[in-house]
User: What shape does this take?
Amino acid sequence: MTILGIDIGSTKICAIIAQKSDASDIKILGVGIARSQGLKKGIITNIDLASKSIKSAIMEAKRAAGMQFERVIVSVSGSYVKSMDSGGIVNIPNREIGIQEITRAIQVADYNAAIPQEHEKLHVLPYNFIVDGQEFIEDPLGMNGSRLEVQVHIITAQKSSLTNLKKAVKLAGIEIDNLVLNSYASSIAVLGYDEKELGVAVIDLGGATCNMAIHIGNSIRYNDFLSIGSINITNDLSMALHTPPMSAEETKIKYGSLKTAPNELIKLPIIGDEHSLHEVSLEMVSKVICARTEETLEILANSLNRCGYKDKIGAGIVLTGGMTKLEGLRDLANAIFGLPVRIARPKEMEGLFEILRDPGFSAAVGLALYGSGQFTPYEIDSNKKLRYKNEILEEGKNINILGSEEEETETLSRDDIRLEKNKKIFDDINKKPNQVAVFFKNLWRRLTQLF
Assistant: This one.
């Protein structure tokens, strides 16, 4: 299976084409990067410009990969989303918990949630299964019990914003298979199993936004968004140093540090008269960068304190995203959060381009991994389909197929169950032509009795 992941960011759009082998290994085949146009702070502000940027990134990735793709996974900015918790309980008549029972429990929790009318569900993520009162069951599949309860974290997104996003991608000539919250995708790319078990907060410090997701055990428990990023540092430098934004960006990349700056002067062009230069001190550059970075981290720390999960993240904070390249960021973050801090890059995999080892591409790599099946053990995705760890993904389709041969005839909804039963009835009729007349005779007798 070949997967196309498109991370639509405020400063850049990254398209990655990856291939999943029969052994479930992932290989990166191609990558395309384009400067974002028609986007501001994670929100599409011009559909035509956004679609051109998306198309440019996709075409570059296709040229590098030399092949087409079968599944398309697109990121959704945290600026679109809200989240809430819900729960559901179902009885297990035959006392055997299968995929059908797990699906029913998650669907009940989904149904019980009060979703705002202008929002639609992006992810329904179970974080606690309870079997006959026994909490924190990691995986209830195959267990024996009379009652199954589930608690879920539901992430929703604005319908209008999603419609604009889908339209921009469609204008680029692409049909979306799945939408994934970008902080969720970043988590997939950078987190290890032990960190999830202990509890961890992943913060993607991007160009114009910061996205936070807290993982505890198998699932996300909390997510938040901040419309501040490294571009704000560039703007502050441009104003403080009275230099054009492009020059300020180059200064940030070359001299960006949160450590004590040397007592040196550099020459920069002046706004409105770029042919003239003036001198500024590196100390001033450092002070501006430190002030904005400290403010950003303090806002995120306050969000972490308010959410009530700070005491449950034993693995501390994992920072990723382009802003993490600032020298000395880890030490500053450690002091502000009061927790262990790790700067994370995407996981190593076959064919990983050198550019993709940059923390700024964590979300894009995570989208490719999500498309290959590396997600939470169970979830209802943006297509309202149950996805789970043992499913087999059909090429070009979003269909769940159960792992064992005995369960292959089971399905994941009442409508599918009814269709399967009807199919069996007519299959039996086709196999036994001599019984067709008897079948319709009995059917006619029942209808006449009713009327």
About this structure: Residues 80-152 form a domain with the Dna Ligase; domain 1 fold (CATH 3.30.1490.110). The longest helix spans residues 282-307.
